[in-house]
Amino acid sequence: MSTAAVRASAGPASSEVARRAIEQALRAPSTRNSQPWKWRVGDRTVELHADDTRQVAALDPDRRDLVLSCGAALHHLRVALAGSDCATRTLRLPDPGNPAHLATVLVVGHAPDPDEASLAAVIEHRRTDRRRFGPRPVRSAHLDTLRAHAAACGAALLPVTGETVRARLHAALTEAASRPRHAIGFSDELVVWAPDPPEGDAAADLPPAPRRISRTADGSYLLMITTAADGIIDRLRAGEAASAVLLAATRLGLASTLLRQPEAHHPPGDHPPRTCGQPQLMLRVGWLPDGAAALPATPRRPLSSVLLPA
Question: Which residues form the domain of 48?
Answer without folding.
Answer: 3-124
